[in-house]
Amino acid sequence: MKFLVLGGGTQGTAAAFDLLRADGVDEVVIADLDACAVHPCLQPHLEGRLRLVEVDAADAGQVAALMEGVDAVLCALPYHFNLQVARLAVEAGVHFTDLGGNTAIVDEQRKLDGAARERGISVVPDTGLAPGMVNIFAQAGIAALDSADAVRLWVGGLPQDPRPPLNYEIVYSLEGMLDYYVTPAVILRDGKRTRVDALSEVEHLDFPEPVGRLEAFFTGGGTSTLPQRHEGRVRTLEYKTLRYPGHARIMRAIRDLGLLSDREVVHEGRRINPRRFFIQQVTPTLCGNGAGDLVVVRVDVTGPRGGAETRVRFEVTDRQDPATGLTAMARTTGFSLSITALMQARGRLRPGAGTPDEIVPPALYIEELRKRGIHAEQSEHRAARP
After folding, report:
1. What is the CATH number of the domain that holds 230?
2. Within the chain, which residues score under 50 in pLDDT?
């Protein structure tokens, strides 16, 4: 099997590393605008099955040429590339999966269903952590019940050793995170799609030590197509981001002061982008202290089953791997991408286009996570219905 990974950043690196450990993988190509730098975990593979190629992802001809002879394409580029690359993959007759992050683009990708079926391939966008892993857990919980009343998803990428004032460190694109802080979240309330303000409706949840108490608040981007798929069938469907307590209050004040705006302003005769200025100023403080990161996931699905009110819960806590240097965020996001691509190349997914909760078999996916040391703990709580 041969795989093409577009984007050699943190997530693309983790996906490539995982592919190179899998049986039956003959070659992995990482294509990036700057293919010089390579993570230490990939260094041993450079003289073997790993190949680095420089490519301008905006050049469709260059990207299409790299797809020749490939079994699957993994797109770890910024989300605005996803639709074009998905179309190129369908034209080339190769499987495609990406990290997603923009539901409008995913809606367009799902329209490739007919063409993908004709070519016997699958197109699976939104296959990272959130969206991605949590959506698969949600679908597994829904399928385990007679019907689902509520689906609640909580996800956080956190420092193991938090430092004030934000108690946060950069575990993926800060630009992307801030975008989620200003974008309204799409949820289901009373069975209808509803938009709610990001950083709103803070609640507190307790997790096993050493994680402890975290706060949760609405952010955009995490639900993918779940609200539109289950509108009218599930009463409540919500996604919230997890942070250490106090983070949301500070970030909401920063946002409301206009410092997260992406619109340029004029200051002393010069044009300034407030968000880029903010990122420049805080990045040195948020680069972490070397203690590593952790990812916390909780998905609860509640509803009736066999006459009893049932809650199906999935939980994941993952930490940075000191052996490889891969962060918990890279592992949970990048490995999710590579697991999907391996399933595609091995013929485990049906042809067509759809999100992971539509296409990826939960039991197989959870088993693949376990093989990589990412343990999804599943539990159930049953009570008599009132």
Report:
1. 3.30.360.10
2. none
